[in-house]
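Annex B. Sample input.
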Amino acid sequence: MSKVRQRYDEDFKKNAVKLSYATSKTIKDFAADLGINPALIYNWRKIYTNTGDKTKLAEQEDSLRQLQIENAVLKRQGYTASYKRVSEIMKRLGLVSIHNKRRQRSLTDSRNAKVKNWVNLIQGLKSFEPFQVITSDISYVRTLNTFVK
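Annex B, continued. Sample output.
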């Protein structure tokens, strides 16, 4: 038969965290004195600081959880928020989002090759042995002070 899961109120958790920071005992011994699992103390320490206040991370997690619940309720009621709808609402309210579109940047500049119509010297060449024809594409060669094209 399964055990009923015990719940602890906020005050108990806060006091346990405060005492765990104040005591010289190990967490294992401290948790044994309280009659709880040591993992609970570690979890509560993530939520509460040594003064008993909630940590910023815990507050952010709470607000995120609340927003997820609100989103689920709105979805169940049939409300949708597509990109187009949100952008229209933002325009009406005079809001502007900063959205940098990613663009592909070329690593080489091949405009010169297209303009000058350089001849492909190995086009149509048949090779019968390995390493008979070796090509390379070096755009710039680094010297001491400058690049040489």
